[in-house]
Amino acid sequence: MGEVKSRESRLRFNRSIRISGGDERLSSMGGVLLLRELDERLGVTRRLCAALEDPRRQGQVLWSLKTQVRARLYALAAGYGAQRDVAELANDPALRLSSSERRGVGPLKEGLMSQPTLTRLQRLLGLDANLLALERSVLELGLEVIRAAGAAKGPHTIDVDSMPVMSHGEQPGSVWNGYYRGRCFHPLMVLHGETQTLLGAELRPGNVPSAQGARRFLLETIDAFERALGPVGCVRGDSSFASSGLLNALEKRGTAYVFRLANNPRLRKLAAPHLVTPAGERPAQPREWVHSLEYYGKRWKKKRRVILVVQETPGELYLHHFFLVTSDKHSSAEAILEHYRQRGTSEARFGEFKSRLEPKLSCTTQEAAQHEGAWRANASTFQLYLLADGLLHALRWITKQKLSTDGTSLPKLARVQRWLVDVAVRVTTSARRVHAHVADSAYELWSWALTRMGRLRPAT
Hints:
The protein is of the alpha+beta class. The chain is about 40% helix and about 20% strand. Strand 15 and strand 16 form a beta hairpin.
């Protein structure tokens, strides 16, 4: 396997312990082999690379697009976000085996691509046609995860939101955002509410309003989603997205919605008659009540149903309140409020994506930041992060019964990475076979996951 000279260190507290390095048969990220198997079952990189435009001279190509995309994708899922990480992991046997197109022991005889090669890959993926292919691949993977979770028949709720991706340099498009108190990007995110599956995202400069481009991007996502899985029952979002343009568009296509409304003088006047504490002694526990009203917004062309939510907190003199606007004219106000509050899990999911994947976009000089190609390369990198998240999320649903604390709740993404991806493996070879040795505890979980992967049938 091309093993290098072993290195050794000792520990002072127990000199009988020797720490050795330089054994190329060992890997701390053995779970990338599971990711490759899942990738093959779902056809993610196969479909993606078939749709990519490759302007390179094929006779001079050393690394195929599939190999490069896999290496980058699996490294991201394992927590290695920088391009140089792949080059530094060149001797890792698990990453070699999982990313290569070769069979048998062949992948163990070759290294991995260099950072300049991956930089050229990101520029290639940033081409218009390739960026669109990446976005489609993210949605297709999301649809496969929903099917694997047994939620293909609905109901389907779409959550829309934005989030900051902080930058630590002069990345193209990173701009100071006063609300988040730092330089950042401000991507638009769309998620399937029932399964917490990311369906797509659009990278945007850090200073754009939350709802900029939301109508176009959201409607395109809903159209593609409905062609594959059926009608979307409801769209949820915060007050940033409750614009008349988006509300009108959703009503025109017959899609229900519930959004929070930003407070204003007209809403405060509408709420005033209902901000009255009920008669009797105030309880020691918080309580709330709701009112179904009609509101004619300043920029709206018609009246819409709004839900006033009044909250009472023990020890506070004044009542708190907020409004929701909805197209649902039949459900009770309590049911609409309960459905909107389930959006909190979606917000937590966006935060989990940001904290566990930690998107890192390339740093460059201010002059290069003006170049459109640099922005497109960053946009394609962000889509790869979404694909890496999608594979981990699929693995989470497959092993839900084993990894969750109660057997029913969805386990944390950190738990999936810890128990399935960050697994030590020792690779040996015999004749034309490769053996990946893991601990018994890991093998039981891997065997469970592989059995369930065998039931996956990706859509053609």
